[in-house]
Every structure is written in structure tokens, then in C-alpha cells.
């Protein structure tokens, strides 16, 4: 029996990945790095912020200006305030769960609280927000999911993860947790469902209306 559902945030609870990709591409363009939002999604979705910045520097042979990260974060915050919304059906799905749930994300706590607040979800997750800042290694390592499960006093066998990224699915499987792939956000490209399955997702959903019936079918709740 599943006793804990662990949700990724960006691209699962909140349709934020495409906004993030567009804003990051704009910020990169200002310093001469030419990537489209689609390329940003392909290269960086699922990574924590430090890994993203390091990858940009490594792949493009540059040292990012000291002020780059702060300016990009300010631009993203403004875009989120104007555009951010929860995925359709997310609130109903959360309210329909009959077990504990939490959010476990590679984003930092400050950004997580901001995005959840803007999307109207913070009250449902306050006190059960887990960030890669809490552990030595973020996804794709299992540390974050294991930390969240331990906080709730649950064994990995009692947990199921909802993830949109290869990085997240890999982390869930490394933690010996079941994982459902989510392909309902705006950044998803054709074939992503197959890639999530190949990484270890046992099934795929594209809409939150599918979640509760699926959990029952999997004998998870």
C-alpha cells in the first residue's frame, strides 16, 4: 500500500518549465549564448541550478558574469508572477488523495515557495517541501526522495513518485520507489513518454484526471 506520494514541482504540479526555458534563453542571449527555449528544455530540465550554470560554462567555454544568476532569477520571478498556473486538475487530485503527499524538487526552497505561492498551492504543501538544498546530492541521485520518505517515516516501498524528467525518474528508481511519468505540461515533446518509460517509469499520464484512477488500479491507494 502506498502511504506517500512525492510530486516533482516544475512540469508536474505547475506548468513552469516552458516559462523558465524562455526566460533563461533570453538571459543567455544577453551575454551572447544563443539557445532556443526548446534547446534549454532539452539540455537542462531536471537539473539543479548549480548544475545548469556549470553546464553552460562548460559547454560554451565561458565564465558567467557574477550578476547573471541574480538577474535571471529576478526576470524569472516577474514572469512567474504574471504567467504561472497550476496544471489543470492538480488541486482536485491533491484533494482526492487519501494518503500523505509532499513536493520534492531540485529547485531551491526560495524558488519552490515562490512558485507554489503564485500557483495557489503553498497552503497544501507548507511544511512538506523538500529541496535538493536539503541533501548532499540532488536528482538523479536518490538522496532527496529518500530524505523525504524518512521524514515521513516511510519505507521506499510505501512511496510513489510523479515525475516529468529523466533525471527525476532515474532518482526515483535509484531510491527503489515506484514512479509514474507525467507528460501533461507545455514543455513536453513527442517521444518523451517513451524516454520516461526507458528510464524506469512504470506508466505515463498526461492529465491529472488520470492520477487517482491509476493509483487505485495500481493498488497504490
Automatic annotation (TrEMBL):
Gene Ontology MF terms in the entry: hydrolase activity; metal ion binding
InterPro entries per record: Beta-PGM-like (IPR051600), HAD-like_sf (IPR036412), HAD-SF_hydro_IA (IPR006439), HAD_sf (IPR023214), PGP-like_dom2 (IPR023198)
Pfam families for this protein: Hydrolase
Co-factor(s): Mg(2+)
CDD domains reported for this sequence: HAD_BPGM_like
Keywords from the UniProt entry: Hydrolase, Magnesium, Metal-binding
Similarity annotation: Belongs to the HAD-like hydrolase superfamily. CbbY/CbbZ/Gph/YieH family.
PANTHER family, per the entry: 6-PHOSPHOGLUCONATE PHOSPHATASE
The name this protein goes by in its record: HAD family hydrolase
Species whose genome carries this gene: Segnochrobactrum spirostomi
